[in-house]
Design goal:
The chain has three helices and seven strands, in the order βααββββββα. By secondary structure, the protein is of the alpha+beta class.
Length: 134
């Protein structure tokens, strides 16, 4: 069995943590830079993200520290990976660290998702920047 794979990326935004937090947790803003869905910063909250060709992906919020940390299980029952967003103040801006982990590289779907997300996440994080000014 292969060990689980991890994707980790950092991006610094010129906006304070409150603005980045809002983009992560406000469904209207979230839909502008990544996917539509009723994401909320409430532990135990269940929601789906519309991933287009990948379908509706069920998620569950596992951990919340306002303006610091949001962790949720992504694609519960299918891909079963974890997405963690960490926000760290940096000057007048925010360093956002994304960790996407738990891919099962022993399954074709896990390998495909890992390779696809590894290539896709940088573009998603780039789209977040313009959404912060909305």
């Amino acid at each position: 069995m292969s060990s689980p794979a991890i994707i980790q990326l950092d991006q610094v935004y010129a906006h304070p943590p409150a603005a980045v937090w809002r983009a992560l947790t406000d469904p209207v803003l979230h839909a502008k830079w990544w996917a539509a869905g009723d994401v909320r910063p409430i532990v135990g909250h269940r929601f789906t993200l519309d991933m287009g060709a990948w379908g509706q992906q069920p998620c569950e919020v596992l951990e919340v520290e306002p303006e610091r940390l949001l962790r949720y299980r992504f694609a519960a029952g299918t891909l079963d990976t974890l997405i963690t967003w960490r926000l760290t103040p940096e000057g007048s801006g925010t360093r956002l660290t994304l960790t996407h982990e738990g891919f099962n590289l022993d399954s074709p779907m896990g390998r495909q998702a890992f390779e696809g997300m590894k290539k896709g996440w940088p573009g998603v994080l780039e789209r977040l920047g313009p959404a912060l000014g909305a």
